[in-house]
Design brief:
4-stranded antiparallel beta sheet, 11 strands, about 150 residues, mainly beta
């Protein structure tokens, strides 16, 4: 009886741990625009049926995607982080028009160099994802961009 109970507990705990979702994977790249300007590109690869929300979400909606870049004195940000077209829908859950991304989303931040040395830009992205039945709590992920290498 103890073996059956132990097996049952093991199966339940395995199923509970299998329910942890991580539907967005982030990668980074850097594109040289000129001798003094680069684009920092953060790419989100989104699992099927999940939606990543835009940086511009109406109040009382889901948490918008937000980027923060550490200032290391070797660059200046030029404007705000830009995002792709995505999809705009009338969301029945939040009862508002919302822009989201599925499959993949690219976010670009243009920078101007203050030196010619290679360096790393560190940053974070905070985001929220939902599918048709649930939303996951907001998550923060560290990002690194190697400039001039």
């Amino acid at each position: 009886m103890k073996k059956i109970l132990a097996l049952l507990v093991l199966c339940i705990s395995f199923n509970a741990s299998a329910q942890i979702f991580d539907p967005v994977k982030w990668s980074t790249s850097v594109v040289k625009i000129s001798d003094t300007e680069y684009d920092l590109i953060a790419t989100a690869t989104i699992e099927e049926h999940w939606h990543l929300y835009s940086q511009d979400v109406p109040e009382n909606g889901p948490r918008p995607t937000k980027f923060v870049f550490e200032n290391n004195g070797q660059y200046l940000k030029k404007g705000n982080t830009k995002e792709g077209a995505g999809h705009e829908v009338d969301d029945p859950i939040f009862e508002m028009r919302i822009k989201y991304f599925d499959n993949q989303a690219d976010f670009k931040q243009r920078i101007r160099l203050k030196s010619k040395e290679s360096f790393t830009v560190k940053g974070t992205v905070e985001f929220m994802v939902c599918n048709d039945t649930q939303c996951l709590p907001p998550k923060e992920v560290d990002l690194e961009f190697k400039v001039g290498e």
